[in-house]
Amino acid sequence: MIKKSELYYPTEEFKKNAWVNDPKIYEEAGKDPVKFWEKLAQELFWFKPWKKGFLHKPPYFQWFVGGKINITSNIFERDWEARKNRIALIWEPEPISEESRIFTYAELFKEVCQCANYLKKIGVKKGDRVGIYLPMIPEAVMAMLACARIGAVHIVVFSAFSPDALRVRLQDTEAKVLITADGYYRGGKFIDLLKNAEDGIKETKVKKLVVAQRSGKTPWSFDSAQDKQEEKDFCKAAEMNSEDLQFILYTSGSTGKPKGCMHACGGYTVQSYWTGKWIFDFHENDIFWCTSDLGWVTGHTYTTYSPLLNGITTLMFEGAPNFPTPDRWAQIIEKHGVTVFYTAPTAIRMFESYGEDILKKYRFDKLRLLGSVGEPIDESAWLWYYKNIGKENCPIVDTWWQTETGGILITSLPGVGPFKPAFTGLPFPGVKAEVKDGNLLILPPFAPGLLRGIYKNPKKYLETYWSQYGKEAYFTSDGAIVDENGLIRIIGRVDDVIKVAGHRISTGEMEAAINEHPEITECAVIGVPDRIKGEAPIVFAVYNGAKLSEEIKKEIIGQIQKGIGPIALPKEVYLAEDLPKTRSGKIMRRVLKKLWAKEELGDLSTLANPESVDKIKKILYG
Ligand code: WT7
Fold first, then answer.
1. DSSP structural state of residue 111
2. How confident is the prediction for the chain on average, in pLDDT?
3. How far is Cα 571 from Cα 551, in angstroms, rounded to an integer?
């Protein structure tokens, strides 16, 4: 790569072989984005072609109206002769002593069909919601695809979420079946997931638990071995309308309750296929490792759907990237010959923190492209990634998107560039974005994969995305700036969402969990900078009771653990007598943030209780 001021470009060799290497694509797509997406969609297999590409009744919109499709037919039936014997999935277990499990497309298809037939047998029908609470094991991918095969709507719940968090999602979607596992390995421990699943289905409509065996000898048990034998190895794909639900995935917003993002079959399939093909430049022999858990949208789109739609190999790893040694992730890249690696800035900063010595024995010579996602990547982490992992030879695509967008919307294309540290790049061809008063907006025709609604909450959908700048602009809740070349830099969330190690956490949701504690009258959670995780939550809780402070702090942490899970654990808990408030009783989180950062507080005349500020200063600074 040639360094031109602070811009980087792909090598000639990379460019030559890339699917896209000419910036003219932006112009072509920009002229008529709908026509452009329609052209792309034609490369996929449709049972029935669509009648209208894009239908817009602001704020509602539809894509490929009247078309019929199934995402799994585009994985297992399109281009089948060429791909059936290729490796679809490589699974790396956490214990070093265990063997990897490897599935060709034909083998994976058989597993998916068996699972799909089993779901049918227990009464799952097209449109039914099915919960998936599985760790990072191949059965998780199989379960997702089995649902998609028969037109059931999966709701994947991150396996580290607590039973309470699982319950909320099962209740909201009224799922009758939950697919889970007896456990998994993480950081050297065997985690009893089944116990959490059994707890989480209490007070829900779940009548049937389907359990994958992680600890036992049978890899995947449908109730009993006998059941499995009865199942057929083929299951016909359900013909889905473009606008039918592909899946629901919950994400955090400003308020206490998570939102179920609704994704549509046609648009999601088109966007996940094409963004993978062009942004990760998927070619036949690629081995792609996206390190995200399947419980997040990154895992949905770039571990499961996109690489498989493209007929390449996707790798999934069960455990912690630094277990049993800090270089486990590097070993995996070498062992399996990973060619494209996609991870979060937090992971990059963690790798960097282990020092350069552990990397000396790794050449990473199969790697040809790197990706970053989930939170802003600072220039120094970018440069470290570029130098030490990419060996100054791999483009870095910094990809901006959200659970709501279904797939990547902003990034530089790897065969085009330029790559600028800390900038994500340009909107994907066919996507229009604008930065207005510092806010990032997506303009019509949006993108085929953008969410169609919030499950059972149309009001929230309108309020969250379509009210700030009217019904014709999708409000992302991200702040951004644009440079002289049009490259976009994401600054961060403008709402009460924080990104902790790339995980999306709502401070409001944390507060709601803490407020469940009978002795905590009120609390405020704010995000503060963290060297490795990017951001971390800290808690201010009002407590005037008699318990020892260490005891009550433990209980507060327990509340978060119970309501959400370990990913939201706070960096610090402070007990206060009182929190700064406006006269109308609103807690001034902004003031707390400034106090924590030791910044100028500015005008405090709107505070109803200015004396609370001095008390908090005492708690923070002693
Ligand atoms: C939020 C969405 C993107 C899929 C996984 C996370 C932040 C995401 C970037 C990036 C800066 C980023 C935004 C966004 N974000 N990618 N490349 N640079 N910030 O999906 O959990 O729904 O989180 O992640 O703040 O709104 P999510």
1. H
2. 95
3. 16
